Amino acid sequence: MMQNSNPTKLILTLYLPVLVSYSLINSPIISYFMAWFGSLFIFYTTILSPVAIIKQDLPIHKQIMRPLFLTQLVFAGFMCTTSIFYFMDHLGYRYLTEINYGAQFKENEQTAIIASCQRICLLAHAALVTGMLLVQKQHIRAKSIKTFEDDDFLIWLGIIVFGIGSLAQSFSGLSQIALPLTLVGISCAAVLFVKGFKIKNIKYLGIGATIFFLNFLHASLSGYKEPIIINIIVIACVFFPYYKKLILYLAIPVAYVLLYFLPTYNNTVRQSWSGEVSAEEAQSEAFENLSTKNKEKIEETNWGFLTRRLSEIEMFTQFVDYVPSHHPYYDWEIVENSLEGLIPRIFWSDKPNMETVSMQRVYDAGVAHQTSTVSAKTRPVVDAYLSFGISGVFFFMLLYGMLVQHLSDKAEEIFGGYELGCVIMFNSIFQGLWRGNNFEFMFNNIFWGYVIMWFLFYLLRTIKVLNPKF
């Protein structure tokens, strides 16, 4: 890996597939695949290639929760690579099998729009990584040192922040504080679980495993896919430095099981939302529905998930078709709404509901109907495009990459290192930045996350878990 901290040549290389995909704009199918493979090229170039600029303080497998690895893989993985299922469905394929036998596919307007969206996603991917590389610090001077040589402090840290987070959930309007703190507690549990497993420490293993698996059970009863996937990502990343080969061997089969069975399982669990059955009863029925007798139903539900839920490119194409043809670019309107959302309601009793504000552009574009229960919130790339078009995507995603990297480096600096700073603090408090959200919610998460990070820093200093490093 390159040790030269000047990333100019590497950054320029990232835009080669962007230029090639735009040069093929008159051949939408080829242009799409060039843009799709372009993201794979960026993954390889920035993570595995000889020219990748990786921090030298730790081996690669021991720093995979830093933004260049985890945030990039999750954000760009969902944004860029999952669209392949929707595009193959558009071309007349299902599970790589042609379903329109004898019918020759003809390119149409939708083909061009999908290709255009994929090119925009590739540009966003390149801009995201550019921002990370521009501000990434090769050497971070830790300002703190742990008081204790053992990891017992993680038990108390997890209990304290989990308790504060649980208490905050009891008060309306404190969800921005409750969720990050709860996630810090869960991350402490995951680290304890892995360390207990590694060094055969029954105390660490018992406490960590109990908290983590109780949270996983709660996620499995929620009816949402994302909490389950996030829990698996977290435990896999924490285990990876110690059991690299095992995690790599398990990655593909686990991903297959999740993508194949999870949609059907969650659809069944959601029956409990109506109140007719309990979450536990719905879960039991969900496991019954996963039998081989329901193979056709599972595959039908799964394909719908892969094409229209896992990938959000269909929604993106609707916005691109709507703006600017039927609605001018929003300019700074979305950003202004997001900044207004930072004002606590206690100081502004008439503050607009950010959920209502953010969903209005979704309804206006016809992406979802007001009577629909489907969540169709925009993502950062979509809001960036709606604001200023392609130039807005580059600008905002460049800032996004710079911000994510800065927050990670700052967390390592003030909390005294990678494990506590990056693994536990950054990837818990700012976990929402893995995929991003609409601007209204994301600005709020970043602002309050920053406040929480410094609050925890001063708390740990006050209770002497951390001491200044001179």
Automatic annotation (TrEMBL):
Membrane spanning stretches: 33-54, 66-88, 153-171, 177-197, 204-221, 227-243, 384-403, 415-434, 446-463
Keywords on record: Membrane, Transmembrane, Transmembrane helix
Organism domain of life: Bacteria
Signal peptide residues on this chain, from the entry's feature table: none
Protein name per Swiss-Prot or TrEMBL: Oligosaccharide repeat unit polymerase
Species per Swiss-Prot/TrEMBL record: Pedobacter alluvionis
